[in-house]
Amino acid sequence: MSEPTARLRVPPHGSSVAATRSFVAETLSAHGLSDLADDATLAVAELVTNAVLHARTEVEVVVDVEPTTVRVTVRDDDRTLPVLRDFGSEATTGRGLAIVQALAADVGALTTRRGKAVWFTLDRVPTQPGSPEDRTGLPTVPSPPAPRRSVAVLEDLPVALWQEARRHEEAALRELVLVRGDHLPETVDAWAWFSDATTAHADLDAAVEHALTAARPGADGDAPATLRVEVPVTDDLARRTAQLLSTLDEAEALAAAGTMLMGPARPELVALRTWRCDEVVTQAAGGAATPWPGAAPRGTDRPR
């Protein structure tokens, strides 16, 4: 096996995304392949961002320039393979891996002795793009649900509004961690605070997905307008959910101030996420469930 053309190791820090983009662009330029730089840097940025946000370990980027292809591999020390998720054509997040697959000639992931490697290739000579079935691809099997204990009930959750809120919230969390990470020293674990918010968000969304699947049997079933969702209240979900709301409020304030690339959320989305989080925290403490009352008009209190 030939030696890699170039490799770079970076810390789990927001600034590492820009560093790896520059590294890949400079490596390709040195080999007369600047025409591949746009696709390669966009794809590697998506993979490194995922590693920084979720693995939170040192990341290694390896570039192999071969006679007909360029192969870029991103390695980290977390053995959890990435999952390709379908958020639809209007999603503002969750499309990173899909973007990589669209740009690359081939893409895949595998576990290693220390963690995992996610890679993509670009053709040096343009060829007819293969169909998705011809590619190695990425796993699409969701993680198994967490064991159930007590539950918090979200009554009359509006499905379409939740889908829009979910996309906006994941985009906000993703951008906020990079904004905050760029202003912290590399010796600081920039993502420790982020873990509570993201795991709470994943737990709440998994409960909605489970209820949606149960209410819509079969792949062609129409989604209901509203759902009754049971959220398993495991471990310290209430505390993490409170952190999620605080983190999303911070992102909203930065977006309103123009600090974030994304714009602020519509009032209905803010109202829905506040109600979802408040319901979990309140019911975990023994309070009663309150059905979704609808979005509060501007200038009124948040629904409780």
From TrEMBL:
SUPFAM superfamilies: ATPase domain of HSP90 chaperone/DNA topoisomerase II/histidine kinase
Keyword Transferase: yes
Keywords assigned: Kinase, Serine/threonine-protein kinase, Transferase
Gene Ontology MF terms in the entry: protein serine/threonine kinase activity
Compositionally biased intervals (Low complexity): 285-297
InterPro entries, sorted: Anti-sigma-factor_SerPK, HATPase_C_sf, HATPase_dom
Annotated segments matching region Disordered: 124-147, 285-304
Source species, domain of life: Bacteria
Membrane keyword on record: no
Domain Histidine kinase/HSP90-like ATPase: 15-121
Protein name listed in UniProt: Histidine kinase/HSP90-like ATPase domain-containing protein
Organism field: Cellulomonas carbonis T26
